[in-house]
Structure formats: C-alpha cells, structure tokens
Amino acid sequence: MKVLVPVKRVIDSNVKVRVKPDQTGVDLANVKMSMNPFDEIATEEAVRMKEKGVATEVIAVSIGPVQAQETIRTALAMGADRGILIQTDVDVEPLAVAKLLKAVIAEENPDLVVMGKQAIDGDNNAVGQMLAALLDWPQATFASKIEVSGGKASVTREIDGGLQTLEVSLPAVITADLRLNEPRYASLPNIMKAKKKEIALKTPADYGVDVASRLKVLKITEPPKRSAGVKVENAAELVAKLKNEAGVL
Amino acid sequence: MAVLVVADHTNAALGEATAKTVAAAQKFGGDIDILVAGQGAKPAADAAAKLAGVRKVLLAESDALGHQLAEAVTDTVVSLAGGYDAILIPATSAGKNYAPRIAAKLDVNQITDVIEVVSPDTFVRPIYAGNALETLQSSDAKKVLTVRPTAFKPVADGGSAPVETVAAAAPAGREASFVSEEVVKSNRPELAGAKIVVSGGRAMGSAEEFHRVIEPLADKLGAAVGASRAAVDAGYAPNDYQVGQTGKVVAPDLYIAIGISGAIQHLAGMKDSKVIVAINKDADAPIFQVADYGIVGDYKVVVPELMAALG
Questions:
Q1: How far apart, in whole angstroms, are the C-alpha atoms of residue B146 and residue B77?
Q2: Chain A contact for B11 (CB, 8 A cutoff)
Q3: Please, which residues 2-61 of chain A have a Cβ atom closer than 8 Å to chain B?
C-alpha cells in the first residue's frame, strides 16, 4: 500500500506571530519555520503503517518555496521514502492546493492520503476535505485512531461530545487530529540517511493547475488587545467582585 | 440574494450554533433558508422554523444524513446550491467536516471561521491561532463560509417559517460508512455555548485530580468543563474538552482558568470571553495578562476557598 502525506512549511508553533505595520501580512523575515504540527502527526502515522508492514511506500509532498525542501527532509528523516516539491512562491489557496494534490495522485496512485487536519498558519481546515471531494473519495477527518486492513480503514474521529467511528474503503483521505499519535524526533543517523533520499522538483505548471489567487486579502490586522485586570487577594474577594462589579454570578 | 444556512443539529434538537449562523446570514441582506439534513430530524426542523427572519426550512432525510456523513450532506447541499448566492455553515465539528467538501464540489474556496461579515463578498477571519485577523474579498460566484458561532449573537425565536421536505441526493460516489458513536452523556451545558466555563490545565497533574478539582466547581456554577491543550495532551481530560485554536473556541460570560499558564494557542480559544478569571501560582504566567481578575496562589488552596465562598 502506497501512502501520500502532504506536508506544509509554516511558522514554528512556538514563535510569536507579528503583524506587519503596513497590514499586508505577518512578518516572516528571520522567523523559525517548521513542519506544520498536524502534518508531523500524519507523517508519523504513515511511517508507523510502513513499520507495521501495512504500507510499502510513504511519499511526502510539499507545495511552497524552495525552502520547503527542508520540510520534506524532515518527513524523510522521520521515515518517509521519497519526496515531491511543487515549487512556487505564490501563497497557494486551499482549493488550488487540493487540485495540485489531485494531479500528483493521478501520477502516483496512492491507496491512502494521510494529512494534517489544518495548517497552523491559515487555519483553514479545508484541503483534506476538498481533495476527497475532487477525487470523489470517502473522507474521514479529525482522526484519533486509524486501523487499515483488507482494503479498508476503520477511523475513530473526534466529534463534539465524543468519538465517532467510520469505515472507509480505500483509496481515501484521512486527516489527523492531535491525539492520533506523538510524532518521533528524527535520529541523527536517520537525518543523515534522509539527505540521500530523492526529492523530485516540480512546478504547478507541470500539473497544469492555475494557482492564481481567487481571494483578495484586503488587510491583515492585529486582533483587539485585552488588557490585564486586577489581582485579588482571596476567593471571597473574587466572588464579591464577580457578583457586584462584573455581574456575572 | 438568497442565503442557505446548513443547520447544526442532533436530529432531535437544533444546535445553538444555527441561530448564530442565521445572524451572520442576515448581514447578507437577502432571503434566508435553513437546510436540516438528518434522519428523524423533524423536531430540529420545527425548531429552525421558529427562528426569526427565516423564509423557509428545507428538511432532507436519509440514513446517511442521519449521522451527517460528509459525503451525503455534501451531495444534498450541492443539489440545492443552484438557488443560493451564499451557503453558510456553522464551524462546529460536523460543519467543519463537510463544508470544504461542499466548497470544492462547487469549485470555490471556503472562507473558514468567519467572525465578521463586512459585506456580501468581504469577510474577517482569524489566522495564526487568532494572532492576526484577515480581511478577505472573494470573487467566487458563490460564497461558501463557515461561521464561528461565538462571534455572532443568536437570532431570537418568533418566526413561523414553513417546513418543506426536499429529496436527499442519491450517493454520487464512494462514501464512508457509519460504524458507531460514543457520545458522553452529561448534565453539564455544552462547552461551546455555555455561559460559564471552568477550565483546568497541566498543573492538575493527573486525571483524578482534574475530576476532583475542576468538576465540582463547574457543577456548583452550572458551568461547562474545559481544559488546556497541555492537560489534554497529558491525558488529564478528554480531547473534546480542549479550549484553543485547534480545539473549541468559547466566549462565555465567565471563564475561570485554573492552573493554566496561558499558551498562545489556549488564549486564542477563550480571549473573547466577557470576564476571565485566572488562578495560578506563577504570578508571571501569561494568563494574567488577559485576566480581568487574578489570584496568585495554589489551586489546592484557592479552589476549596472558592467553593466555600460560593456557598
């Protein structure tokens, strides 16, 4: 079974994001970039499938600037077999990302796509579902458990108030939620080995997909700031203030 | 201009997020219809018909719709989409699952998690875990939005829209099939819509301690229970308690954060609360920078005192 894992290069989750004063975007200069955390979880899951003998090959795909090769190398160091970079400096919108991935899938014919439920930059939570729609494949989003056997995947999903289990016949798209697994840290020998793995370089034009924006970003602004309030001495004083001052009890 | 709102519901009842999404739909200034896609969902449709300002309620029913599977909901919404300029979907876990599938079938981008409708083609949404707000203009012919419920006040009851039955679309392709569902029954209010939320963090140290400290206080206040991502990661609280950018976004009248340091990702999920209380023994914890009232102290001392003070 061949597994495709799309991975995105984003601002590291521990970096405090700063909005540019001219409101055109957030400041990406000299900022640490990493693999989107949900994509790390997806990569880990795919690699575990390979280690269990369920998957035979794991392919990491990224769409982004030339530096996104580093993100693919991270996936390769975790255990993915090879990578594909679709190089573009355009900030590709989710629908176009899904179209590019569909084109990659037409060439690679994977049995399963495992990907993060959302990227922590745009927070769109859209590409996995869009890809499933374009392929007319079943989808199972927000997975906290995946079991693959006999051409099917049983997926436990995080829903409001509990868990739901779905069965999808393969090929299918599954998106990873936080509790699916804890991604490994790549070992030094595996990081070295990853340097020798192949990354194919492509462009959106190779796949005939138009990545021009359809959404116009008018401005990026800072959210309204909340100011610190007061420290109170004890619980009795707190309850009094909540009742009399704030009026919320 | 006509807008379709896809209802958040449990078949037997309408979710509060629906009335909030109708409020967002009103900003478009056109006719508003609500689709209830389910099975045995007449009670939810009847509740939707009572919302103010709704033209009609469409009720589509089938087995696959009963569990609101993404493939089935998508096919039904797409079959109705021709009559609408915009499709608004509450950003609940069900809505977030099927909305992008609908958008892709219509060959449009989804505008995710809208917190303000500036005009029928311009919207504001949070990005980077709420650390920035993006104002977007869409040139797509049809707009597909998910709406963050906490950003809108629900429309009132008082309407009496007709309920029309519409056909559930026949399956267009391979679909996921439903196996089972475990929904925790609770007498507490639902986290996303609760007036008061009591949340615990990593300082709890164990699942037992989380239950012992957080839950009695929540029950005393009639509050929902939340948790930080750190507490969920550590296994102290179930995943659906998670408040934060990648969990639930809440905006109650009162949010009480106990033993929560206030990581960026947590603040993104609760900073729109009306009043925030923080209890933490670290006076420098970032949570105090957003709290209206803070107590620096050990929760093991402060929470029992708080229980006593509440009487």
A1: 14
A2: no
A3: 11, 13, 16-17, 19, 26, 38
**Segment (H or E) for A102:** helix A94-108
Report CB contact under 8 Å: B181, A221.
no
B137 to A216: CB separation less than 8 angstroms, yes or no: yes
pLDDT in tens, A4-54: 999 999 999 888 889 999 999 999 989 999 999 999 999 999 999 999 999
Residue of A nearest to B127 (CA): A122
Q: What is the DSSP string of B183-207?
A: E---SSPPGGG-SEEEEE-GGG-SH
Closest-CA distance of chain B to residue A238, Å: 7
- The tokens for B237 are 């609280």
| Cβ separation A163–B182 shorter than 8 A | yes
Give the up-direction half-sphere exposure of residue B146: CA atoms within 13 A in the CB hemisphere. 25
Cis bond upstream, residue A171 (ω within 30) = yes
ipTM score of complex: 0.95
Interface of B with A in 20-59 (CB under 8 A): none
- Distance of alpha carbon A147 from alpha carbon A155, whole angstroms: 7
Q: Which amino acid is at A140?
A: A
Tell if the CB–CB gap between B183 and A162 is shorter than 8 Å.
Answer: yes
Q: What is the pLDDT of residues A171-215, one digit of tens each?
A: 999 999 988 998 999 999 999 999 999 999 999 999 999 999 999
B252-294 pLDDT, tens per residue?
999 999 999 999 889 988 988 999 999 999 999 999 999 999 9
* Residue A164: how many other CB atoms lie within 10 Å: 25
